[in-house]
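Q: What structure does this chain adopt?
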Amino acid sequence: MTNNIADIDNCKTMLVIGSNTTEQHPVIGTRIRRAVRKGAKLIVADPRGIDLANIATLHIRQRPGTDIALLNGLAHIILKEGLEDKEFIANRTEGFDEWRKTVEQYTPARVSEITGISVDDLFTAARLYGGNKPSTIFYAMGITQHTVGHNNVLAIANLAMLTGNLGKPGAGVDPLRGQNNVQGACDVGGLPNFYTGYQRVADDAARAKFEKAWDVKLPPTPGLTVGEMLQAAHDRKVKAMWIIGENVAMSDPDSRHVVESLNTLDFLVVTELFMTETAQLADVVLPAASFAEKDGTFTNTERRVQRVRKAVNPPGEARADWQILCDVANHVSRITNHGAAEWSYNSPSEIMDEIASLTPSYAGISFARIETKGLQWPVPTQDHPGTPILHTEKFSRGKGLFSAVEHQEPAETPDQTYPFTLTTGRILQHYHTGAMTRRVPGLETLAPEERVEVNPDDAARLGLNDGDWVRVTSRRGAVESRAWVTDRVGHGLVFMTFHYAEALTNALTNTAVDPIAKIPELKVCAVKVERASR
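A:
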C-alpha cells in the first residue's frame, strides 16, 4: 500500500476494483465502511454484487477480464472533462503524450461495448474519481490473477498519476495482500527474481553484495515460479521439492496436473501445521509451529513490520520454520561434502539484524525498535520514524512512467461448448484452502459446503432451483456442488470458492499465465453448467 490503513479516513473517493474487501480483508473493509458513513464516495467495480456494492455510491459490473478497457476508459473521460492534474503530470511523470494516444482510442462507446458498463456509469465513475479528490484505488487478486495482471496494475498506476492521486494523504494505490505476511515474504527474498529488498538476482552489483555477505557463489539467473516448478517436476527436470506452508494441491490451477506433478517427484518434503491435501502426498512431513507458537515478525499489507510473540509452546515435535531451515541447511551441507553451512542463528532477532544489514528499506528496523509498535518501511536508518506515505516527493525510479496498455481478452472466453464464465474467490467464513478454518466447528456450521452462484435467469433456463446439485465442467475437469441461485452474479457468470476439497474448484481453472508476472489466470475460465444426476 502506498498509504496506511488509518489514512482511509482521509479519502474523499474510493475505487475498489478486483477486491471483495469486506470478506477477504475485513479489517480494511470495516475502515472503508466507516469512511462511507463519514461522507466518502465509494465506487465498486466488480462483476459480482459483493457486500460493499450495497453501500456504494456507484456499482459498475464490468465483464470479467476487461479491467484495462475500463481503466483506460475512465482515463479517457477524465482527460475529456479536464480533470487531470496538469501540474503533477508535468513535474512528476514522463511518457504522458505517448500514453495519451492509446487512451484516446478508448471512447465511452467502445469501452461500454467491451465491458458491458453503461456510458452514463462510466462518466459518473470518472467524474467521482477524478473530481472528488483525494481518491484512493484499492485492488486485490481480482486484478492480478489474469493473463494481463501486470498490465492491469500499470493501468491503475496510470489512472492515479493522471489525477495526481499519489504521495498525499487520502490519495494512493493500495494493493491488498491476500495472505498474512505475503508482503514480508516478498520483502525478504521470497521471490525467484529478487534478493531481499527487491534487489534483482540478475543485477551484478546486487549479486556481488550478497555473495560477499554470505561467502557463496550465486547464480545470475532468476529461479522458477510456483507454476514453473510444478511443470518442471512434471517434466522430470525437478526431482525433489520442499513445500513450506502452501497447499498447492488445492490452491493452484488445474489441480489434477498439480497432483500429477507432485507424484512425479522422486522426493517431496512438506512443512505444515496440518495434514493438508499437499502434505498427504509428501514422503516426509515436518511439523511446523503456528504464528502463536513462535517469535518473529510479520510485515502486513500497509508495509508495517510488527513483532510476533510466542504465546504457547508448539505441540509435539513442531518447531519454528527458521529452526527447521537452519538444521536442514546444515545437514545438507555436510552430506554433500561442503562442510557445515554454519547457519548458527540463536534467535529471530539475529535474523532480523542480518535482514537490516542487507536490505536498505529495512536498515533501521530491529526488534528493539518495534518492541511496542511496528514501523512502516522504508526505514533507512536507526533514527528514521518510518514512512506512512510513499512517493511524496519522487518515485523509486525518479519520475513516474505512464505505460500504454491495451485491452486483451482472457485466455478462455465462453463458446457454445462452455458458455459460462467462472470466476473464483473467497467467502468470509473460510480462508484459502480451509486448512485451518474448516477445522473450526462454528465456521463449518456457518458454511459447510461449496455453493455455485448462478444468476436466476440462467438457473431458470437450465431448470435449476436453489440448492439443486449442479455439475460445472471446464476443459480440465468437472466439479459437482449445490447451486446458489442469486443475482450477486450477472448473466453468464458463475462464482465458486476454493475452500472445499470435496468440490475442488481449481480442478476447473486455467494454467495460462501472465507472461511478465507469471501469475495464473485464476479469475476467468470458460465452463458449462448442468444439472447433476444426484
